[in-house]
Amino acid sequence: MAPHKRIFEGVRIIDVTQYLAGPVATRLFVDLGAEVIKVELPPSGEGSRRLRFSAGDGRKGAAATYFAMHNRGKRCVCIDFKRAAGAAVVKDLAKSADVLLENYTPGVLQRYGLGYGDIAAVNPNIVMCSVSTYGQDSPHAQRIGNDLVALAAGGFLHMIGEPDGHPVYPASAIADHMTAVNAFGAISAALFHRARTGEGQHIDLALVDCTYNSHDWQLAAFSTSGGELDPQRGGTQRTGAFPYGVFKSKDGYIGIGIFTEPQWEALVRRMGRADLLEIEEFKTPGGRFENQAALKQIIEEWFATLPDDDAAIRIMADELRLPAARVLSVGQFARDPILSRRMVAKVPTADGTEMLLLKSPHKFSKTPPTDPVPAAALGENTSEVLRTVCGYPADKIETLLREGVVTETHPG
Question: What is the pLDDT of residues 56-70, one digit of tens each?
Answer without folding.
Answer: 555 555 556 888 889
